[in-house]
Amino acid sequence: MGRVTPQPVVDLRRQPVDDVLDRVEQGLGTRLERSTMVRKRRSVGVRTERDTWVRVERRAAGRIDGQGWNGTEAAAALTGVAMPQWLAGLAWRAPDGSAVWRADETTLLPDAPVKPAGGTLTAAPTLPDSWWRTLNSSLDALARAATTRVATPDTVTITQEGVTSLITDAFGAAVDTTVERWHPAHADLNWANVTGPTCCLFDWEDWGAAPRGLDAASLWAASLAVPELAGRVRYERRADLGSRDGRLMMLFACAKIAGPYADVADPKLEPARTAARQLIAELR
User: Fold this and answer.
1) Contact (CB, 8 A) for 215 and 139
2) Which end of the chain, C or N, has fewer beta carbons within 10 A?
3) How far is CA 92 from CA 57, 89, 99, in A?
4) Where are the domains of the chain?
5) For all residues of the chain together, what is the average pLDDT?
6) Taking Cα atoms as reference points, which of 239, 236, 237, 249 lies closest to residue 275?
């Protein structure tokens, strides 16, 4: 048998995207202000001439599952959540069939992201009490919503088996990892996907049903290099994170940081290991 050639890793921070942006301009009928472009590994964001924002994402064809790939559009049905208004969408398959591209146009964010893309938050942001009230009311409203979507954090559909596998790989069969309650979650909640000082949650591609506490645990884990901020997240979302499912999601988040592929240079690593030991003791 011949050897299977692995697919190259595509990083939109480095790959030319002019032809993609040309297609978006034609499809949405607007000019993109390319000097405003923000590049991430699998997405590009850019302001338009009509004072809106377009986010363009590339996803491998194998990552497109039966629920479709229209998270930002589907999130427009949510109520009570601080988020940009969805205006239009455009999707197409790459000529070689290897990937699917999607562009979503939304209203502009009210403020800048709390943390620019990339790296770890290492200093506490200045967030007013109103910011925390909006975060809480948004996550509570999201949890009450109804959806047939299943969350896809890191583009992978979340399942009970996946939760168990990640925790077990990192910490062994130390606790019962059975999730009891599932409800809608943003599924990619971190400081790069929320604005401040006005709170607004954005990048809704991966939202859907997930274990209770996933969002709160994700934001808490992203704060571990700043103990006072991690403590504030844990306090504000104590109803979720104080539940057994919430603690499991905190352990799940720790496993992503302190698992087999841990980065020794990550300032969140030791706090995650310390928190994991405490969580395991509480969950036994």
Assistant:
1) yes
2) N
3) 11, 11, 9
4) 18-107, 129-283
5) 94
6) 249
Distance, in Å, from the CA atom of 250 to the CA atom of 175, rounded to the nearest integer, reads 13
Kindly report the CATH class assigned to 18-107.
alpha beta
Q: What Cα–Cα distance (Å) separates residue 146 from each residue in 67, 75, 141, 209?
A: 15, 11, 10, 9
The alpha carbon of 282 is separated from its chain's Cα centroid by a whole number of angstroms, namely 27
Question: What is 129-283's CATH topology?
Answer: Aminoglycoside 3'-phosphotransferase; Chain: A, domain 2 (3.90.1200)
pTM of the model: 0.92
Chain centre distance of CA 19: 27
For the CA atoms of 120, 160, 183, 242, what is the dihedral angle to 10 degrees? Answer: -60
Residue 48: name the closest of 64, 35, 67 by CA.
35
Token pair of 278 as six digits: 């405490």
Distances (CA, A) of 254 to 6, 32, 75, 162, 236: 30, 39, 28, 14, 19
The pLDDT tens digits of the residues spanning 220-278 come to: 999 999 999 999 999 999 999 999 999 999 999 999 999 999 999 999 999 999 999 99
**What is the helix (H) or strand (E) element at residue 7, kind and residue range?**
none
